[in-house]
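chain below, 206 aa
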Amino acid sequence: MWEREVVGRLLEWWRSNRRVFPWRSVRSPWLVLLAGVLLRKTGAKAVSQVYPKLAAKYRSPVEVLRAGAKELERDLKPLGMYRRRAKELVELAEVLCSMYGGRVPRAREELVRLPGVGDYIASVVLCYAYGEATPTIDTNTRRLISRLAGVDEPQVREVYERLLKEAKSSRELNLAMLDFAALVCRARGPRCGSCPLAGLCSARLP
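prediction:
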């Protein structure tokens, strides 16, 4: 079965090549959400430099509101666009505290209505914090699925969901997909020659 073979090879590769970031060991819905918001339009390397400090200081939306925008700006300055980021985080914290008692909702329809939270970040929270078997589709994983299965946008989710059904851990498979897309199936210069999925891929380059 194609899906089972893809998942098996992908996870075998990932166990030896996984990337390590501080937010990947986190299970708190708020801290997962915080990482997702910080990673929007910002590289993982930059976020990894400030995330441990931010996660320790702002352990809940309540701490964000207590600190206020000015203090947040100072802490977020290394990431750039710090005034905008601080404003957005305060708005997010205000909604979580006023509408959800400081908790992160578990329903997708509520997550996507939060300030600055779209479908991708909602999927990240549902998978990594709440353990739901949902695909985390971004530009990179979309490219990987499209190349691998030879499908266009409407079918990417369908293929991704079939792969998830073959995995014991949706968390591990989603992380493996992200890392594989970043390190092997890159947007430019994909490493097809050393790709463990080459024999299963519809877009393998010579």
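The chain has two domains: 2-19+134-200, 22-120. The chain has a mean pLDDT of 96.
thats it, cya
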